[in-house]
From TrEMBL:
GO terms for biological process: small molecule biosynthetic process. Residues 177-294 form the Fe2OG dioxygenase domain. InterPro entries: DIOX_N, IPNS-like_FE2OG_OXY, IPNS-like_sf, Oxoglu/Fe-dep_dioxygenase_dom, Plant_2OG-oxidoreductases. Gene3D superfamilies: B-lactam Antibiotic, Isopenicillin N Synthase, Chain. Pfam families: 2OG-FeII_Oxy (PF03171), DIOX_N (PF14226). This is 2OG-Fe(II) oxygenase. PROSITE patterns: FE2OG_OXY. Keywords: Iron, Metal-binding, Oxidoreductase. Transmembrane segments: none annotated.
Amino acid sequence: MGQQAPASNFTEIPIINLALASGSSSPADRESCLTQLRHALTNVGFLYIVNHGVPETAISNVVEILPRLFAMPDEAKDEVALGNSPQFLGFSGNGAETTAGRRDRREQFEFATELGEVWDDAAGGVPLYERLRGPNQWPSGYPEIRPVVETYIHELTLLGERFLRLVAEALFLPPETFFSFLSEQHRLKLVHYPATDNETDSDSEQRQGVGPHKDSSGWWTFLLQASPPHVRGLQALNKQGAWVDVPNIAGSFVVNIGQAFEVVTNGVCKATTHRVVLAGPESERFSVPFFQGVRRDLTRGKAVGSLKGHFESWSTGPGGDGLHAHQPQLETEREIDSPFLKGKYDTWGESQLRTKIRSHRDVGRKFYGQVFEEYVNDD
């Protein structure tokens, strides 16, 4: 996950009121919403959305299950361990992942749109990356979780589609332009960051919930900050290298650009580096990120070339938010930070499979022995 080319010198995260773009809004309100969204897309890469249309019950039900879910005994978590799943779905414990070379202090359950498996080792003819498609693991001792998670994934899938229509309009494109890039399977994490041992601990490794990174696995991320507002930790990096707090605003989702969207928009809409810093002994934190999936058979040629003509002359320099589309942007400003583009593999699916195997090497060695050595040693 890259950390280069942070976003412009924002000092706070813009709030986009989606009610202004509803069918009952005036043309002036809708245009105001689109202008604000365009600025967030091209100059920040991070935004809040409010009045988003996700039912409150779907959100509150997820928030309510989190403490009990993470309080389950170890044997219940082991039952659905990530190591059981070739789809990399299930539970992983504190310190199981590293970011920026250091262990992240979080435990998490990973789920996805419930789908059947299509990859068959004996049958052949199906790319190996299609093995990433498949079913969830559900804790047998907590049957209530499945309907809550599936409802939430359904509602966030619909939100993602509504949002993409607005994004396309803000970028002067037909409403469903970006739909052809989407996967049928989206991913969800339920995350618990433990409180640190010492509130005054200056050891950055001890306070790393998640290290600095850009989201490399999804199209867009929709984050529910599921702890009380006084519990902070999420920060985004601006161009001056300053970390900007992203506090919990009631009724909001934090939305940020994934690196695949940066590729397709030709670097006009950049993914922004962010991190989570643990606050102290009284501040355990829960969060629920939803990653809008990218179709696994997307090639680099399609990703780069599909909308290149629209974005290649786009201006996002000082004072430019896309309104002056014939003012070319300097190539140095347009540099795209993408492991997909810089890597050796031509499809998004294979690039993602490599990332998963390198992040969870025990799972990769167990299920993907035929490519394991290649993927972990191809730097």
